[in-house]
Design brief:
7-stranded antiparallel beta sheet; coiled coil; Nucleotide_cyclase; single chain; 3 domains; 5-stranded antiparallel beta sheet; 19 helices; Beta-Lactamase; PAC; alpha+beta; Alpha-Beta Plaits
Length: 598
Amino acid sequence: METESEPYVRLATLRQVHQAIAELNTARSLADTLQTVADGIVAGLGYELSAVNLVRPDGDLVVAAVAGSASAEALMAGRVGSRVSWERRLSMGDHWGGLRFIPYTEGWVLDEDDVPQWHTAGPAPRFADEWHPMDRLFAPMYTAGPSGGELLGVISVDKPRNGRRPGPWGREALQMYASQAAIAISNARLRANMQRALVRLEREQQALRASEESFRQAFEYAPSGMAIAEMGGDQHGRLHRTNDALCRLLGRSASQMRRYSFSDLVHPDDIGTLLRTSAEGGRAELRLARRDGTYVWVSLRNSVVADAADGPRFLLTHVEDIEERKRHELQLAHRASHDSLTGLPNSAELRARLSSRLCGRPPGSDGHAAAAVGPYGSLEGFAEVESTANAAVSAIGAVAGAAAGTVSAIGPSAAHAFGSDAGPDYAPDFTPDDYGGAPESPYGHAHLVDHHHEHAIAPDEGADDGTKGLAVLFCDLDGFKSINDRFGHHTGDAVLIEVARRLSSGVRDGDTVARLGGDEFVVLADGLGPADAEDLAVRLRNAIIPPIRVDGRAVRVGASFGIGWAGCGMSADEVLRSADQRMYVEKRSRAKAGRRAG
């Protein structure tokens, strides 16, 4: 390549090496950089052949670039040599600084390994430093310099143009070039990785934008209401964003909706339902306020979404209008609990309302009941007090009749016969527990105690002591059967509807008027004394007596009332039975009085 006596040759070669190194930094891609490295060996360092072997991710080395011979490039480019074979080559031969030189006298052992090569046999050297065709010279490239760091690749060179093995200056030039090539290749890899990362980032951003646009369109144009609300903190539930469907449903603009949270819009009676709804994946059915002050039933379902991996979380709320379904459910519930003809509460609803005011513990039996159930109203300790509990229940039976004021009037025989003589429209088939009474203990008939329950107490009809109670007025129409027989069921139905209206008009707002069936009605009126109940019965009877016009015809019916009193310790059936018997007593008394008058 050069001689020590020709400094001008070394200067010209240095310029060529400098130019080759400068070109390393102009390559636009990793492939261009690798080819520029191979070309620089041929153009600037005076070798006829060069190859760049690059370390792959699996550790083996692939021939990534070849320069100086098209036939050698066709033979070697893209072929792979194992890492083991390359490490063997780099560990043998002469170490020329960072270079590895394997003379032909040793290289013959490498002829059969898997490293791609183009060496051919030739005559023995004629002088000491003559290059032999089987000589091998390698310049390893490392990520942190030639003496350390991770192996990046190996530059292979062959056929010096001057036919001599390189001297100290030529070796230093090749080693310096390999160091600069390693930097250039590392930079090219970094640029390639950055470009791939940028491309991947751009694709992810495009996908994110597309996803956001899809979500925006799905959110904005969803047929049902959608909202995004803040999750956690002082502003939990505050609405950040609402779609058009929700704004239309509630009659408010999007800007107005941002002033509220769902707790501001929910019906006061549904606040508890909203609070019980779990924030994560919770759902509830409740009422939301419209701008005009009305409320709409909605199904509200929450999902938790995160703004970023560790960023704030929000509630994505789906709001579905269920007003029609709720209206239908309420209609069905009303039909199940109300009489289809008159619209009044039916027998089941009457018993439910009556039972809600009664408990299984009669007034005056507190000591027995407390001993049975313990201080906390639980079933613990019942085994020890079973006999006491049974005694308490026996007392209930004795007190029930007196509390209703029926024992002296009708006697036990009449009460016993009630089940068969009460009439076809009244067949009690309920037990105290059916109406919310306390469950029986497995150790007896003692009941659970509700310490917040306000006992229903039957007033003493013989004393004007100011006691108020729950009056039960049992009403049976007089003369109704003859109207049905003479004028038909159409007229009879019209009479029942008008009687129901007159009864409802004659009671207070909190009272209950119910139809048991047929021509029997019941009125529940709380907070009355005996005289008050008598006055109410008279007013209602007088309201029923006036003629009722049906299809141009005037018909009349009378009414008989029996007044009973609801008291704790009684069942709903016992209360109704008492009032019914009172009504029959009154009906018979009036019939006798009419016969005497006649």
